[in-house]
Structure formats: structure tokens, C-alpha cells
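Fig. S4 source data, part A: sequence.
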Amino acid sequence: MTVALIDYGAGNLHSVHNALRAAGAHGVVVTADAEVVRRATRIVLPGVGAFRACIEPLRAIPGMIDAMREAVFDDGTPFLGICVGMQLLADTGEEFGSHAGLGWIGGTVGFVERADPAIKIPHMGWNDVMLPRPHALIEPGEAYFLHSYAFEPSNPADILATTDHGGALVAAVGRDNMIGVQFHPEKSQAYGLDFLARFLEWQP
């Protein structure tokens, strides 16, 4: 198995790499090579920071977006996006202006609105992960979150999990062989490692 961990300068790259190895991955390749991604048996897109600051360097890697799309859509390669790596799946991100995402899962990434001023933004720390229906990869439990923007899918069927921070927020989205999580499995201790271990074995 080759797990392609895409290197486009994301700040959580090395912690995700270590977490994947701790979860049982023996073939993790940190790469900015489109051909490596095209041939991989698993693809992981990490990400922290602003939407624009992630999508622009990802687009700047020659052939990377095309390789990702071919692997995921044509070959059915299992794909995991983490935090902003999940948000990039959306049509649009509304952080510091409006910016086009990958458009793989319809929706918009917008600022977390709060009805109660006592609710702090960013949403930071441990919180419950709740499932509207069972999923092969996600279990109910507690995971670590750190974000100020949240994915709002166009199709509710693409919501795999939610959390509550002054109201419901999307904690995971997905379809077919794609999954994206807003929480950080690499910071979620046993819960996160168990999730990554299931991803490594996933046969969607």
C-alpha cells in the first residue's frame, strides 16, 4: 500500500504523517509529485489555515489537481481530506473573499455564525462527533477541532457527521470513496488513530 500525503506546505503535514504511521500505515509517502499521487492506493490531503492560502499552492503544483481527480473519480482511490483539506472539496470558500474550491462535494465554506456571544470562535478543543446514520469510518466519540469556518454542503446526504458549537456544525462530509473531516485525527489521540486505521483498511 502507498499512502500519498500531499505536500503543498500545509502546517499539519508532519503530524498527520506521524499519525498515519502510528495507525499502521507502512507506505506513507510525503509528496508533491502528481505521478506518485496518481499511482497511490490511498490519498490524504491535510490542511490548516485559510482556504485561499491552501487552494492556491495546491493548484500551483504541476498536474496535481488532475492527478487527484483521475485517481479519485476514475480509479476509485480512497481519499481523505483533513480540516482545510476537507474544506477544499467545496465549490467555494468565503474566507478573505470568495475563492473556488475543488468542487468535488457541492457546498460553501463559511464563517461559523454564533447566536450566543458567549460561544467562542474559533471552535477549538474537544467536542462530540455525532452521526446522522452509520458510516464505515466514523464512530461516535470525541475529537479535537480547531476552525473558524465550516462546510455547508448543498446536499444534506453528503453530511456524514456533525458536532455542536452553539448549533450544529458539519464534522465530516463524504460520498463514495471520498471523506473529509473537520476534526484533526492527528490530534484526537485514540479516537483519531482508530479513525485513520479504519481509513487504511477502507474498501468503499
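Fig. S4 source data, part B ends here. The chain is about 25% helix and 30% strand.
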